[in-house]
Amino acid sequence: MPALVLTLALTGASGSTRAADPAPVNEVAPGVFVHTGQIAEATRDNDGDTSNWGFVVGERCIAVIDSGGSTATGEALLAAIRSQSPLPVCAVISTHVHPDHILGNAALASLKPAPEFVASQRLPAALAARQSTYTALALRQLGADRAPVFVAPTSLVGAQTVQINLGNRDLTVRSWPTAHTDNDLTVSDETSGTLFAGDLLFVDHIPVLDGSLTGWLAQIPTLRALSATRVVPGHGGVASGAAAVAAAWDREHAYLLDLRDRVRASLRIGTALARAVDTLTAPAGWQLTELYHRRNVTAAYAELEWED
Ligand SMILES: [Zn+2]
Q1: Which 8-state DSSP code applies to residue 150?
Q2: Nearest to 196 by CA among 233, 249, 245
Q3: Do 177 and 228 touch, CB atoms closer than 8 A?
Q4: How far does the centroid of ligand 1 lie from the alpha carbon of residue 163, in Å?
Q5: Per-residue pLDDT, 266
Q6: 101 C-alpha to center of ligand 1: Å?
Q7: CATH superfamily placement of domain 3-205+222-247
Q8: What separation in Å is there between the alpha carbon of 277 and the centre of ligand 1?
Q9: Closest to 195 (Cα-Cα) out of 204, 184, 206
Q10: Ligand 1 centre and the CA of 168: distance in Å?
Q11: pLDDT of amino acid 159
């Protein structure tokens, strides 16, 4: 490994005494690099490497989309960038507030010049409401010596779409009505047709509901109609080609629709939530259902209980 690469990695590694090993990435299209995290809960062993992230290299600078679930994942991300390009990182885009997607930002905060930290205008309130819970969770999962650091966004995206120019390459950042969370963003690389969907799309990992079930169902047709050439989900493998992209959206939609319809039916006959979480079992074919499906039923109950 050339000495230059090592030096650059050290510069950005936020005070660590050695450069992190670069995280494995796939170049899914020219200049578009994706890391696929494990389909697992965060633990000390995996150090929060449980979500997907990527970076896009333009002629002038680089944009990062999500950064994994710990400072260490961010350091490995930075090392991966430096193994590909010496260009500066000009934007770090967080697709939503969940800590498995944003805790790596801590490793990117010491870059000079500082990148813009881009997030939904609703992310700061969501983070303020949850930060102590997220901190306790990270300390429990990663260890007491790995305290999470949350980086405040410097550039907020409202209802309009925002273009980020990386030098002869444009990214489109879109803000979405409440779906997976109330602060979801997607990022489209217009050059390659790659859509970074954040957790608006789950592949293999069971979808996790923390926003609005009916809202999410309402947005999927619009997301699908973006007709991306490939889509990078928040969790699970990249879907490449129009048919695979459409199938990924359809599969998620089917899970959410089934959840909505079974919860509605259950509410109609007056089933108590405590019983419903046992009887409304998860459909086959998804991973981590034991961790998230009951929680999804509970969230759906709370949302749909007061429908007409
Ligand atoms: Zn999420």
Answers
A1: P
A2: 233
A3: no
A4: 23
A5: 96
A6: 7
A7: Ribonuclease Z/Hydroxyacylglutathione hydrolase-like (3.60.15.10)
A8: 21
A9: 184
A10: 31
A11: 83
How far does the centroid of ligand 1 lie from the alpha carbon of residue 180, in Å? 7
> What's the rounded Cα separation, in Å, for the pair 282 and 6?
47
Rounded to an integer, what distance in angstroms lies between the CA atom of residue 235 and that of residue 45?
18
Q: How far apart are CA 252 and CA 246, in angstroms?
A: 10
Q: How far apart are CA 156 and CA 170, in angstroms?
A: 18
> Mean pLDDT per 10-residue run, the chain (308 residues)?
39 52 98 98 96 98 98 98 98 98 97 97 98 97 95 94 97 98 98 98 98 98 97 98 98 98 96 92 95 97 89
Sheet holding 162-165, edge to edge: 162-165, 170-175, 185-189, 194-202, 230-235, 239-240
Can you tell me the distance from the alpha carbon of 175 to that of 120, in angstroms, rounded to the nearest whole number? Answer: 6
- Which DSSP symbol is given to 228? -
Whole-number Å distance, alpha carbon 270 to ligand 1 midpoint, is 31
Which residues are near ligand 1, the ion (C-beta closer than 5 Å)? 98, 199
Q: For residue 187, how far is its CA from the centre of ligand 1 (angstroms)?
A: 15
pLDDT on residue 18: 60
**Whole-angstrom Cα distance, residue 31 to residue 199?**
22
pLDDT recorded at residue 264: 97
Give which of 66, 4, 46 is closest to 235, Cα–Cα: 66
Task: Say what the pTM is.
Answer: 0.93
C-alpha 166 – ligand 1 centre gap (Å)? 26
- Tracing tokens 């050695």 back to the chain, one arrives at 18
Q: CA separation (Å) from 279 to 30, 260, 262?
A: 47, 14, 10
CA of 211 to the centre of ligand 1 (A): 10
**What residue type is assigned to position 134 of the chain?**
Y
